[in-house]
User: Fold these one by one.
Assistant:
Number 1:
Amino acid sequence: MTEEFKDILVDSFQWLGDQVGQNVKIIDRLTTVKGNYDRHFTRTSQYKFIIEHFGVRFSGAVGMISGKEVHFEFKTDIIKRIERKKDRLEISSDLDVNTSRLIIFEII
């Protein structure tokens, strides 16, 4: 992991932490054909809630975001790409040789 990527990662997580109290829509895509998020290969889940907590646990390298009845976690040590545009944060991870995950956090 490069220093530049670490800086982007930290900035992105700090931004997400600053969104506590805001409405968020999370789109979570899991594909069994690495990097191909075509609907035929992908399981998609969507959540909408007000962010009550956000944090990153160093033990296990897990990011956690939660609301009143939703608790969403994702691994932070396998992130391959992270990109923020305005009120939208995209995180791409490779879970294994064939499986990829794309998580989109959108402040609404």
Number 2:
Amino acid sequence: MTEPETDGINTKTPPQASNSSSNIGWPLPLTDSQWDTLEAADRVAIRRQGENLQTGTVDGPIENPDVFWVWLDEGRGRVLLHRDDEPRIWCLV
């Protein structure tokens, strides 16, 4: 049984952080210095250590870009992301 796709993203195959031609269509993950560009209601894809890629919506307002909440899609709840946990984050358009 395969996992369902979420917003057109196969959760078993996360985007790779590279500049290779196979990465066309996916930006590189946000760098630490780019976290402060996130705003409430931004759509994001996240990958936390040891977990599959998940998509959701930034819950805001973001008062401290070192830590913020994301509501996961498909009723999977809300997760707290902290810079020290080194999650990979992509902004979705």
Number 3:
Amino acid sequence: MPRTDGIYAVPSGTKGVTLQAIQSGKYNGFLDDITNDLNAARPVGAGGTGATTPDGAAEALGLISAKDIAGVNTVGGTANAITIVTSRGYDAYAATLFLAFRAAHDIAAGGTTIDLDGNGAKPLYKTVAAGLVDVNLGDIIATGYYWITYDPAADGGDGAFILLNPGNASSAYQVGDWLETARTLNSDWLKRNGGIYEIADYPELAALLPALPDGVTWTNTNAISSGRVRKVQKTSTGFLMMVDDNSSATQVYTSGPAADVWTLVATIPTFRVADFVLQSGTFVAVDGFGKACRSSDGVTWTSPTTILTFTGIDGIAYAFGLFVIVGDAGKIATSPDGVTWTARTSGTSQFLYSVRLVNGVLMAVGSNGTILSSTDGINWTARTSGVTAILYDVTYGAGLYVVVGGGGVILTSANLSTWTPRTSGTSQDLSAVTYSTSGFLGSGLIAHSQKITVAA
């Protein structure tokens, strides 16, 4: 091909001269040369794409090929091992891979993998300020739409998928016990797990929490007329909310995916709900007076029964195939079905106020600086916190376990063995902590309301 640095040049001896015969060999060769050139890939430097196919052109120009925005046919697997089958059918992982999928499960704690078109499971990470970390609870919810790409340099060069929009598919946030409602929000407002606070009213809280970005719109819904919202749980059809009526009963409400219209579906007498979980279609709720009840649909509930010798239950979680409850005097019990309970030895007589599954470890925290951990829900290890404050909640993110408690206490640990106190900037009790892509959020008992706040 007569090209120099990508520029076509006419071969010598092929231009016509007046009154001189054209040599057929050279002329025909010239025509063949032109034909070949027209059918060949024109170099990028000569204004072409450097390729003869759309995929090749995209690669030569450094663009994402249409083949790499794959159509997804099937999403399956489990909460921690997602499988995806595409219409394209990838035969290898590459840096240009970029696709969207609709999640089939809420992902669980403890790390998640994706196997795309049978090419082998690769870890799924998200990006935070400290770098790449495992995705966690709330980053992917069932029926949400998510974008992923592939980074062959991640995971020490073994390659990993990167979740580009963790948590953004959800249209609603969990509602805690204490809420302050809001309208159209900007950077003058703070959010913590459904609670909305104006910076000017809560300067100490503002010192802890990052402000909301501009343009976030929230809608208030008068979900209940009285009582106190204890927890909202996402379900397969929308949301379920349990409310302490401030007297002697618990009210159960449900809504659709928009969380805008709430319907009272059940009242549980002689039961003051403290916490509940949903696992494999079974709700198990506990109250502050040592009782538990169950439901398979959120509408029909069993009669509350006292659990063993509990006089108060403050928290419940599900992990390692067991429902786990914690409460007064260091009591812990487990059940495979929410019916038959077995007492476990905690090694402490301190009150336990919360139990959470974080980073694949069950954590319980309570009075007098108590921190317990377990990898099976049965055997518990006491951790030395170095404080005597009441500890209310625990979470994990960016390689750190974080515990918050009374008097503004914040503790962090990378290994559960050594805990470091952190400066919170407040003396207010911190009752909850959670982790998001922008960092850790902690909040105290600010206010309470009968409203539900939903993000749009």
